[in-house]
């Protein structure tokens, strides 16, 4: 099973940021209100994610790091309407197979926490450990036992940059959750929970820059079971790089051709060639109307009714943007 897990790790775990993504998504799936991420040496030395979520019962800790053990899906029918970020049950075993790994957890109803250590895939028996309600995962020396992958880690600053970008994306996706990110013992980001729309917009400004709110329009529209909300940048404030485009489908960051095409069309007659609008958009729809089971790590989805989604996005955005023309 070790080799199987290491192969799975090769698919899902490309670099430290992929580990952070899987761990923070687990925290969010566990209903955490606070997520604290501590990184050392760009994640090559340490990745630690702490949350105040539901925790894992002592007798289920070993299961959490076992292959294909997910607590989130019980049947094929569930797979058709995945509401959690994770559902494959392969992230923790994969990560644990290529690192020195520890999971410490305590459900609120349990008086002590337990800690399970896994070294290169070999799990020790869980032992009592101090920990408040919630979970901590520590991942040390990522890829220490897979030298070919360890060698491909980039400079500390590059790897941390990927982590920072990921945390910004997650912070946009979950405005009500507090996120802290630290690197080498220094606090780098603190996103306080945003309880209203003004605070949510302030968080957006933290990610897209202080000018974004003044250079954008609020969008809010629903039709045919689709709901779109967020902010789109004014054409006049478009950027040279397409790096400030955030699109979330049911709280999941997505890069999708249908979406990209609809946005491009909506801006087509107001944007100079080679310029890219900034936007933060949230699309909500019935989980059964979208397939998120396409690839474990990529930001791909498949809409059951792509045409409907495309036209809804295009119309909504085009209307908003057209209104800005004198
Ligand atoms: P998946 O998220 O696809 O279910 P993972 O390998 O990421 O699979 O996690 C395995 C299981 O461990 C989850 O289904 C969940 O039950 C449990 N788990 C992992 N991380 C946490 C966490 N931070 N809080 C509570 N439970 C967790
Ligand atoms: Mg998961």
TrEMBL record:
<dbReference type="GO" id="GO:0006298">
    <property type="term" value="P:mismatch repair"/>
</dbReference>
<feature type="domain" description="DNA mismatch repair protein S5">
    <location>
        <begin position="204"/>
        <end position="322"/>
    </location>
</feature>
<dbReference type="GO" id="GO:0030983">
    <property type="term" value="F:mismatched DNA binding"/>
</dbReference>
<dbReference type="GO" id="GO:0005524">
    <property type="term" value="F:ATP binding"/>
</dbReference>
<dbReference type="GO" id="GO:0140664">
    <property type="term" value="F:ATP-dependent DNA damage sensor activity"/>
</dbReference>
<keyword id="KW-0234">DNA repair</keyword>
<dbReference type="GO" id="GO:0016887">
    <property type="term" value="F:ATP hydrolysis activity"/>
</dbReference>
<dbReference type="GO" id="GO:0032300">
    <property type="term" value="C:mismatch repair complex"/>
</dbReference>
<comment type="similarity">
    <text>Belongs to the DNA mismatch repair MutL/HexB family.</text>
</comment>
<protein>
    <recommendedName>
        <fullName>DNA mismatch repair protein MutL</fullName>
    </recommendedName>
</protein>
<comment type="function">
    <text>This protein is involved in the repair of mismatches in DNA. It is required for dam-dependent methyl-directed DNA mismatch repair. May act as a 'molecular matchmaker', a protein that promotes the formation of a stable complex between two or more DNA-binding proteins in an ATP-dependent manner without itself being part of a final effector complex.</text>
</comment>
<keyword id="KW-0227">DNA damage</keyword>
């Amino acid at each position: 099973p070790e080799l199987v897990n290491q192969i799975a790790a090769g698919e899902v775990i490309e670099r430290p940021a992929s580990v952070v993504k899987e761990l923070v998504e687990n925290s969010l799936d566990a209903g955490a209100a606070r997520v604290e991420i501590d990184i050392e040496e760009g994640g090559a030395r340490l990745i630690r994610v702490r949350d105040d979520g539901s925790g894992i019962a002592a007798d289920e800790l070993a299961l959490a790091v076992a292959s294909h053990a997910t607590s989130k899906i019980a049947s094929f029918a569930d797979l058709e309407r995945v509401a959690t970020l994770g559902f494959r049950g392969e992230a923790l075993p994969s990560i644990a197979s290529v690192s020195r790994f520890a999971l410490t957890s305590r459900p609120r109803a349990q008086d002590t926490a337990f800690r399970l250590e896994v070294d290169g895939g070999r799990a020790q028996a869980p032992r009592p450990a101090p920990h408040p309600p919630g979970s901590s995962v520590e991942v040390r020396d990522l890829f220490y036992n897979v030298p070919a992958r360890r060698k491909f880690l980039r400079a500390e600053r590059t790897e941390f940059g990927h982590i920072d970008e990921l945390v910004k994306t997650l912070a946009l996706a979950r405005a009500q959750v507090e996120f802290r990110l630290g690197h080498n013992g220094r606090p780098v980001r603190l996103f306080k929970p945003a309880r209203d729309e003004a605070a949510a917009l302030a968080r957006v400004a933290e990610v897209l820059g202080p000018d974004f709110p003044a250079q954008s329009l609020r969008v809010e529209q629903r039709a045919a079971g689709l709901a779109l909300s967020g902010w789109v940048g004014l054409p006049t404030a478009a950027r040279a790089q397409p790096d400030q485009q955030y699109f979330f489908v049911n709280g999941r960051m997505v890069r999708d051709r249908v979406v990209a095409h609809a946005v491009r069309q909506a801006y087509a007659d107001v944007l100079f060639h080679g310029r890219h609008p900034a936007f933060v958009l949230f699309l909500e729809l019935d989980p059964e109307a979208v397939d998120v089971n396409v690839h474990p790590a990529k930001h791909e989805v498949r809409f059951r009714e792509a045409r409907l989604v495309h036209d809804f996005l295009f119309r909504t955005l085009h209307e908003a943007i057209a209104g800005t023309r004198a």
